[in-house]
Design brief:
- The complex is a heterodimer of chains A (115) and B (113).
- By secondary structure, chain A is an all-beta fold.
- Chain A has strands at residues 4-7, 10-13, 19-25, 31-37, 43-51, 54-57, 64-66, 76-78, 87-94, 104-106, 110-114.
- In chain A, strands 2, 4, 5, 6, 9, 10 and 11 form a 7-stranded mixed sheet that branches. A 4-stranded antiparallel sheet of chain A has the order 1-3-8-7, with no helix packed on it.
- By secondary structure, chain B is an all-beta fold.
- In chain B, 0% of the residues lie in helices and 56% in strands.
- In chain B, strand 9 and strand 10 (99-103) form a beta hairpin.
- Chain B is globular and about 50 Å long.
- The termini of chain B are far apart.
- The chains are: A mainly beta (115), B mainly beta (113).
- The interface between A and B is medium-sized, with 23 and 21 residues.
Chain lengths: 115, 113
């Protein structure tokens, strides 16, 4: 299993540009998440999905959009990039365990700079 | 008040030392608890879950105190490879009725030779 994969690894955007961060998992997990991590800070949840066709806002959804057309893929769309969106973006997935602990598996991250 | 609070450190300890981190959480309805490890410029990875009765995995011991709403991680016989940031993570039911993880900002550990 490749686990959770993300592309691209790095990207520099100009203010106002848009882009899609890709995330794919091959573990057949029904839950998927997008987080951002600013330097020296914890992870903030942007959006999450509990299954194909279902998405919910997290803590910091403004400026982002998501879709979940398949179990495997959960792309994150940035429209009109702003410097405040400079961050490291992590995608994660999980599946309920017998203890319902929802442990999460993370991708390697996308480092985005908006200038 | 932050939902999950940790001392950012850094904790600088010599090899072989025992070091302990604490974490406090504000939501008494929190249901599951974890410690994740994050190496510099890498993704977080699950270190261990924290069970009500406390649990141990090799040199690592995790404990939960629901009454005081804190979680602890004890690392014995520290190795250079233990140098990382340790994230305290709490699982709760959010406003939409879904489970969500809340991450602390992390405690940085630097083990020195």
């Amino acid at each position: 299993n490749a686990g959770v994969t993300q592309t691209p690894k790095f990207r520099i955007l100009k203010i106002g540009q848009s882009m899609t961060l890709q995330c794919t998992q091959d573990m057949n997990h029904n839950y998927m998440y997008w987080y951002r991590q600013d330097p020296g800070m914890g992870l903030k949840l942007i959006y999450y999905s509990v299954g194909a066709g279902i998405t919910d806002k997290g803590e910091v959804p403004n400026g982002y959009n998501v879709s979940r057309s398949t179990t495997e893929d959960f792309p994150l769309r940035l429209e009109l990039a702003a410097p405040s969106q400079t961050s490291v973006y992590f995608c994660a997935s999980s599946s309920p365990t017998r203890t319902h602990s929802y442990e999460q598996y993370f991708g390697p991250g996308t480092r985005l700079t908006v200038t | 008040r932050k939902e999950v609070e940790q001392d950012p450190g850094p904790f600088n300890v010599p090899e072989g030392a025992t070091v302990a981190f604490n974490c406090t959480y504000s939501n008494s309805a929190s249901q599951s608890f974890f410690w994740y490890r994050q190496d510099c410029r890498k993704e977080p990875k699950l270190l261990m879950s924290v069970y009500s009765s406390g649990n141990e995995d090799g040199r690592f011991t995790a404990q939960l105190n629901r009454a005081s709403q804190y979680i602890s991680l004890l690392i014995r016989d520290s190795k250079l490879s233990d140098s990382a940031t340790y994230l305290c993570v709490v699982n709760k039911i959010n406003a939409t009725g879904r489970r969500a993880l809340t991450f602390g900002s992390g405690t940085r550990l630097q083990v020195q030779p």
